[in-house]
Known about the structure:
Shape of chain A: rod-shaped
Radius of gyration of chain A: 33 Å
CATH topology of the largest domain in chain A: Arc Repressor Mutant, subunit A
Mean pLDDT of chain A: 82
Strand content of chain B: 15-25%
Order of helices and strands of chain B: EHEHHEEHHEHEHEHEHHHH
Radius of gyration of chain B: 18 Å
Number of strands of chain A: 3
Order of helices and strands of chain A: HHHHEHHEEH
Strand content of chain A: 5-15%
Oligomer: heterodimer
Helix content of chain A: over 70%
Structural class of chain B: alpha/beta
Number of domains of chain A: 2
CATH superfamily of the largest domain in chain A: Winged helix-like DNA-binding domain superfamily/Winged helix DNA-binding domain
CATH superfamily of chain B: P-loop containing nucleotide triphosphate hydrolases
Largest sheet of chain A: 3 strands, antiparallel
Distance between the termini of chain B: 18 Å
CATH class of chain B: Alpha Beta
Strand order of the largest sheet of chain B: 3-4-2-5-1-6-7-8
Number of helices of chain B: 12
CATH architecture of chain B: 3-Layer(aba) Sandwich
Low-confidence stretches of chain A: 53-60
Amino acid sequence: MGKAEQSTLKVELLLTKIVDDLDLVNQKLDSLIELNEKILKTQEEFQKVGSDKSHFETELKPELDPMSLLSLPMSLRKTVIALYKLEKATAEDLSKETKRLRAVESASANQLVRMEYLKKKRTGREVYFYIESPMEIRK
Amino acid sequence: MRKKVISIHSSRGGTGKTVIATNLAAIYAIKGLNVALLDLDFRAPSLVDVFSNAMKDPVRHWLNDFLDGRCKAEQALTNVSEAYRLKGKLLLGLANPAIEAIRNMMEKSRAWEVTAVRRLFSLRSTLFEEMDIDCCIFDTSPGVQYTSINAVVSSDISIVVATTDSLELKGLENMLVELYDTFAKKTAVLINKVFPETRIWSSEQQKNLISQMEKALKHPVIGAIPCYCDVLQAKRTSLLAVDKPYHPFLRNLEAVAEKLEHITETSSEGEVCRAKS
Lengths: 139, 277
């Protein structure tokens, strides 16, 4: 074999190797594209669940059952027990029931609203606090 | 008597809660007070057996139905005062003893318990404001369970029935601190089935035991009732307050009933102690 022929063979082998490597790169790119599609799909699902408020209300809303009261501070517990009795009440109503100051009841009820245990609703000048029963939400 | 709800509870079973609850209710009804006695022990209902002879018709609505919102309060209550010739009303609210009903109550969700405790509060209002009831007694399930906590939360005074068993006292001590003190409930302990069994039990011995128990439990003890074999052996359907009104067990329980009349939700611990003596 002459020198020219040997050079041609080396070039052919090199080109074949380049083609093989390019195939491998293509395969890896395909896998990356596939993976990226999966990530996008999962993100879309998360965004969909996040925008569906009722899903969070039924699945993640804390429930104010009497056993859970044991883990609440005494000041908040008193307000909840008064609300079990009154069902729907202003801070003034709560104050009459618990014999504590109106301001104490207002602070306690608003704290429970922030903790998502209670709901509040304005009717005219009055603000009413109530326990939204999860059973009622699920109906 | 100022209108009140009394829950009868214990840290474990077999302390005599049901005998105390039924006879306490009968004592008040004999005096002419209108009483409602509710079986809130949905895991092991027993009032249905105790009052089986007094029920004219089969029970159509149980307390289970009321808490599930399937019937009104008045439909779940039966007046048995005529059967025992009582001066006052004795309304019974019974728990369904069918296995299916018990299983159903055990599978209730936390969400259901929220609704149940609110229904118990509404039942209180119905009994006191519309049905002229003076006293409502809850016979609860022992230990810390949803139904017993619901009963404790919705009552004004809790009587914790205990025996002198040391293991039970340890459990009671924990329950008093972790449950009753947490809810700031007016609570009194009633020691039942006290040994040695004797009918000639000096008041000095009784006072000493009460004082020791108060020291150990750091809560007021409203009474100590000796253990009487014939009370333990009595038929399930026997209502002692009616069948054996002069039994010493009744004398002791009448003293407790009288003290309870003077305790209110807002009584201080000192007032509970004064009511005791």
